Structures are given as structure tokens and as C-alpha cells.
Amino acid sequence: MSKILIVAEHLDGKLNPATAKCITCAKQIGGEIAVLVLADAVDAIAAEAARLDGVSKVLTVARAENAHPLAAVYAPQVAAAAAGYSHVLAPSTTFGKDLLPRVAALLGVAQVSDIMAVDGAYTFKRPIYAGNAIVSVEAPQDRVLLGTVRVASYAAAGSAAAAAPVEALALDVALPSHTRFVELKQGKSDRPDLQSAARVVSGGRALGSAENFALIYKLADKLGAAVGASRAAVDAGYVPSDLQVGQTGKIIAPELYIAVGISGAIQHLTGIKDAGTIVAINKDAEAPIFEVADIGLVGDLFTLVPELERALG
Q1: CA dist 312 to 218, 223, 309, Å?
Q2: What is the chain's mean pLDDT, rounded?
Q3: Which segments are annotated as binding site?
Q4: What is the pLDDT of residues 135-186, one digit of tens each?
């Protein structure tokens, strides 16, 4: 039977929803699932993880050095905690992409990246060529498997009837000191988080300016949605880079995705392929976005978006 260790992603004492999606992936692999929480104050995070359905136990490592999620500091601890486990998983987010390759290097094994489907305990599907193709990969069964989970492909695990036990883990690991935390800068917004929002409204280069992006913000606020953008809009300076959706931005899977003035380059479509309903607004009837859209509106976005906003009341 598989023994799966999931490295918890958290910030400001709260578990990231990406961890619950990793648990769904782990349940499809099958076996005992443990969640590893590395922090300076672990209690609240561990309690949250323990209430997720499918978790057998939560392991905690409370050290002052774990106050900030530095991959260089976390990696040797994860490598040590992995002893006895058949699989080690982390979300394919900035956190997981930074951490798990280091762990793989320490353990001397290869990593399976962006797991989007489970065919067996050691056989998975993952996207390649910017999502243009899906490949099946089979990993060796005689060594620990490390994998990052494409969280847009999985629903979050629900709540369990009873909380799993929480155990403090004692690791005799020397931590590197060549990396230190300086500061974290992140945008603050009252809107939903882009990666976990059920509704997202994104704007493209066709908006023409940062000022015109107000149309996107207003529509998003009407819908209670997060705001996203194409790479072209980000490169043009209309919005900050943390709103970028696509292969080189955020991979998302909202229930509703509205693309305004976005032509639909393959790199952008890769980031929204798992969305429930895709609505496209573009004046070019031949735009690639219409090939994947469930609903398409051909016309001037500066006319259609205000009309849509008024129709929402």
C-alpha cells in the first residue's frame, strides 16, 4: 500500500486551498495520506489540515527557521521526513515548484511535474508543449516518487467527520544558512484570490490602457469575481504580473471564466483549459478564443461589457 506525504502550503497561519487539492490527487493514488506542516507556529495550520477528508495524520515540525517558506530551509527537512514514504507530493504552485526539485536533488530521484490525472500508483498524465499535448509517464516503483500536482485539475478535498491525529516530528537536520528571508511583497485586494476563485474576469491587450481596465474591475465586482489578465496586457503595463493567467502565469480552473479582449494564444488557453464555462468577448470573430469558448460575443468590448454590467443589475 502506498504511503503518501503531502507538504502543506500555508501563509499567515492559514492552509492554502492547493493543499486540499493535493489530497484529492493522493486519494486517487490510494493509500495512507499524511500532511507535513513546517512552520514556526504549527497548531492552527495542523488543525486545519487534520480536518480534511482523506488525511490519516498530520506531522508537524515547529522551528523558528520555518517562519517563512524558504525552499532551501524546507528541502532538507522534507527529504528527512520522506523516509518510509512511497510518494511525496506538493502543489504545482510557486511554492511547490521551488521546493520539490530541491528535495528531489537531495534524494537523488527524478520528479514528475504537473500531475493532472492518476492512471496508477506510479503512472500519471501531465501536459507538455505548453499544454498542446498530454503525455503518460511511468515512474520507477523501487524508489520514492516526488510529484507536483496541477491543482487546477483537482477539486479540493472536503471536511472529514473527525479530525486526524497530529504528531510532532523530531528531525535531526542541519539547516543551511546561506539563504535568508528579507521581505514578502504581495498585492492586497478585497476581491477573491485568482487561483481559487469560482469566477474570473480577465482582460487583454484590446483594452488599450490601464485606465480602461476599470471595465474589467467593475464587471468582476458585479459578479463577485477575481480579476485576471493575458500576458499581453501584463507586458503592456495595464496590470501587475500577479494577475497573469496562462502557461507562464497562473493555471486556474474557475466555474466561470470571462475573457474580454483576449485573442486566445495557446499559452493563455493552457491556463484556463479546466474552467467550467468559458465566455469570450472579442471583435474578431476568427479569434482562437472562440474555439474553446462555451459562449461567444462578437463585438466591441467597450459596448458589450457595459451592457453586460447593466444587465447584471
Answers
A1: 11, 8, 5
A2: 94
A3: 205, 230-231, 244-248, 261-268, 282
A4: 999 999 999 999 999 998 999 999 999 999 999 999 989 999 888 889 887 7
Q: Give the residue numbers of the binding site for FAD.
A: 205, 230-231, 244-248, 261-268, 282
Whether pTM exceeds 0.90: no
Domains, the chain, with CATH or none = 3-168 (3.40.50.620), 199-311 (3.40.50.1220)
